[in-house]
Design a protein that fits this description.
Chain lengths: 275, 291
Amino acid sequence: MLDDFFTRALVAGIGVALVAGPLGCFIVWRRMAYFGDTLSHAALLGVALSLLLEINTMLAVFAVCVALSLLLMVLRRREGLSSDALLGLLAHSSLAIGLVCLAFMTWVRMDLIGLLFGDILAVSRTDIAIIYGGGAVVFAGLCFIWNALFAATVSPELAAAEGIGTERANLVFTLLLAAVIAIAMKIVGVLLITALLIIPPAAARQLASGPEQMAGLAALIGSVAVVAGLYGSLQWDTPSGPSIVVAAMVLFMLSLLPVRYLGARRNSRISGGRS
Amino acid sequence: MDATAQVPPLVRLEQAGIKRNGEWLVRGVDLTVMPREIVTLIGPNGSGKSTTAKMALGILKPTDGSARQRPGLRVGYVPQKLMIDWTLPLTVKRFMRLTSKLSNTEIAEALEETATTHLMDQEVRHLSGGEMQRVLLARAIARKPDLLVLDEPVQGVDYSGEIAIYDLISEIRDRLGCGILMISHDLHVVMAATDQVICLNGHVCCRGTPSDVSKSEAYLKLFGHRADGALAVYEHHHDHVHLPDGRVRHEDGTLCDHCPGHDGHSHDHAHASHGTDKKAQAGQAQGVHDA
């Protein structure tokens, strides 16, 4: 069944979407979209390093993302620049350093477009094994820290006061995020990873009434976006990574339509009752 | 309190202080909360009440001095504010389970106590200020804590609701046997069941026990007899005022850079005398002083 490149792409894409959705919920809740962006920009530096040191690409991307988030933690403690500016600084300098490094390595013929926008149609069986193996680890890790991370998201102080290990949960979350970016890079590319992390949760928000439900819906919506995007790219001969993101965007727009109407009606009823 | 000699305190601050950007938010605070004891912190805005509570909770580490909790202490915390983002779908029921595993019965019982059972399936971000306060309180007591820390628990609650919450807090103290550390939003009116009032103003200004509100005619006029038993006054007198530039103005008009008793020990406040707290006079308790 995995002989066909298109099937392999579907299986790999769904695998990534299944973990990106729940993890992405936390990015949306914690307003960390720009942080996700920063990590994915840094992924390019990871690719350059992997070529330079001749090590596994995913491993190098993971290592660079982890190093970058630790660096950010240290820099944030030294009060000075706002974390907004810090993120921008780290995102673009790591992207630039990555590109400069790649240019120096004249012996490497690099498909930059594939790196930036992903090459989901070229996934191998090994890639699928890594996606599902790594994905299972990320999923297990997220389940393990879910309650603590959620409490820390709702109120860091409340969670810390009541004995929740917020620091540990935050650290594990950062590691998981780095892992997902390393895994997902090949599917949608450096520039569009954040889209896969935040658009499905944003679409799920309209329909969910609880955090766990929202995570499940985000995984589902992400998978639907992968399937729709890939068939769309086959149909209209469009680049696959961007097509997936466009499909996710369309799902988000659809989620806005009926529920907003119902929500408005419900809200007016509530305020009417209160006045 | 003879029992205090044997029982270890739930939390103990010793000469604790926090410095941020070269300025002391609060310093030299000595504070203990024993089981079944109610300690109320009062003081003007920015006097370090919340900072002190956060040191006791272990959220902030003191720059100076020490803050120790009894090992294995189970804390229930009612923060001053809690903003829930639109992106976060969170019902009251799920919110109750935020930091502890609770059965449906336990959740229902806790909400019942604060008269918020009808809010169970509401989204937290749709709650009004008073509803939010009561849900926060329900969540904290559902944990059956050893130490309950309440940061202005009655803000946004109307007057009769305030009395009901104070009654509930002392009832919880009796039932669970927990210690309570409470920050009062009012400079002069505290919960009657309070064992110890600590007045902060960047340091411990003074401490003492509240006097019964029913003894103060002015308060009776203000609040009526319904307040009997729930509220008390803490009348006190400050001999100096902290100016915005960090200097201190004494009663006789002299200025200096430090408080007279910056270590927090030597204070000569006259307790239960006629209050002339300059900052408080601008506040809502004006009528009391005029009386």
